Amino acid sequence: TIGFNAQGPDPTQCKPALIPHIDTWRVLEKYYKLGKFKAIGISNFNQKQIQDLYDQAEIKPHNLQVECHILLPQKELFEFAKKLGISFTSYATMGSPGRPSKNPDEPNPTEVPLVVELAKKYNKTPSQILLRQMIQRGIAVIPKSTNPERLRQNSDIFDFELTQEDLTKFNEIKLHKWLFQSFWESFAKHHPYFPFNGY
């Protein structure tokens, strides 16, 4: 848990709030039992944090949301969550090109040659290929857009299916890139619960 010290010398720097995850989880469990929530989950947890919470939780996490895309496929974390019965949600599936921390030199998943090639093959946009690939992996997606046409395109991914050969080619992508690294590290990397030190 983190907060921001608005009155401090640097209001952008986080102020660690050393509240154990399980304490926050107990509150979520309470409101889940009251019927206020249909499901409760976690975001940006690493395997150790997931296991620690899982072992202590009365109501196990229903969902894990993390950055996941073809440059950061999160295969090990996905299988770990699956083993525990936790569904998996990807954010930044298309690379979140509008994120404030984006570096102009960073790779864009929509421009990866394989994605462009498959977009032409199926007469779809690169974004639709990325969303479809994730869906076929069994991972939920939450694409963000305020553009009506892009919103329509994001849902128009159920009239085609990538072949097994197509999916295998994604495994051959060697570039590994955590796109939100600079964002999280800009204010939270010194927090004792920072989950990404192994990236």
From TrEMBL:
GO molecular function, one term: oxidoreductase activity
Gene3D superfamilies registered for this protein in UniProt: NADP-dependent oxidoreductase domain
Ranges for domain NADP-dependent oxidoreductase: 21-173
Family annotation (PROSITE patterns): ALDOKETO_REDUCTASE_2, ALDOKETO_REDUCTASE_3
Domain of life: Eukaryota
Name of the protein in its database record: NADP-dependent oxidoreductase domain-containing protein
Species: Acrobeloides nanus
